[in-house]
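Reviewer 2 asked us to include a model.

Predict the structure of this chain.
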Amino acid sequence: MSEISERVARVLDDPENWPSDPKEAVALQRRLAGRVREEPLDVDSVRLVAGLDVSYAKDNTALSAAAVVMDIRTMEVVESAAISSEPSFPYISGLFGFRESPPVLEALGRLEVTPDVYLCDGFGLAHPRRFGVACHLGVLLDLPVVGSAKSVLYGKHSVPGNERGSWTPMVAGRSEVVSDSSALAERGGEVLGRVLRTRAGVRPVYVSVGHRVDLEGSAELVLRMSPRYRVPEPVRYADRLCGEHRKAVLAEKEAREGGPAGDR
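Predicted model (C-alpha cells):
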C-alpha cells in the first residue's frame, strides 16, 4: 500500500470527519480552519503533481472523481485513477468539501505513487470560513494542496492584465470586481488568493492556498502547469478522465439493463 493510500484510509475511516448535518459541517470547518498551515513551496523541487477533479451527472444523482499524476518536468501522465459514486452530502455552497472530498480521496487511494503536491479544482483560503475543499483535503491528509478554481466564491478582486502571468490579489470580502484590489491589500486587507492569467486574453483562474503551501509558490506552480491552456494540465486531464469514466459507467449500466432509456 502506498503512502497516500494509507493516509486516505485513515481519513475515510474516521466518522468524525464526515458529519451529515450541515450545521455540524460548518462547525467542523471552523475548527479545522485553525489547522491550515502555510509553508514555502519550492516549485523547482516538485516532481509529481496530482490534479483532482469531480464531475456530476446531469441530474446530480451520480458523480465521478479522478486523480491524475503528472511529471512537472515532462508534462507526461505518470498514473491516474477514477471512481464513480453517489453524492453523500447535500449540494450546499461553501460545503463542497464534505460532498467532494470523499470521492476524491477514494480516487487518490487507488494511486501507487505518492505525489509531491496536489492541485485541486476548487478553493482553499478563498472561502468565507477560510476552508474550501483544497484546505479540507490538505488538512485531513496533512499534505501540500493548492486550490485553483475557475470561478469565484468569495473575495474582492480586480481584473489582471491581458498578458500571461498577470495577476491581482483577492482580498477578503464578498465576491465582487473592484477597481484596485492591490490598493485594498496595501491598506491591510486580508489577501486570500490571486486572480491569475494563465493564457493571454483568456479568462483567469483563482489560486489560493490549501495547506502546506504559500501563495507565491502556488501561483508559480499553477502557471508552470498551464503551458497551453487556461486550466492547469493535471486538473484538465482529471476533468477529462472524469467525463470518460462517467460515460463508461453509464454505458456499462445501460448494457446490463438492456439499452438506453429511450430504447426501452
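The two ends are 44 Å apart (CA to CA). Residues 130 and 163 are 29 Å apart (CA to CA). We have added this to the supplementary material.
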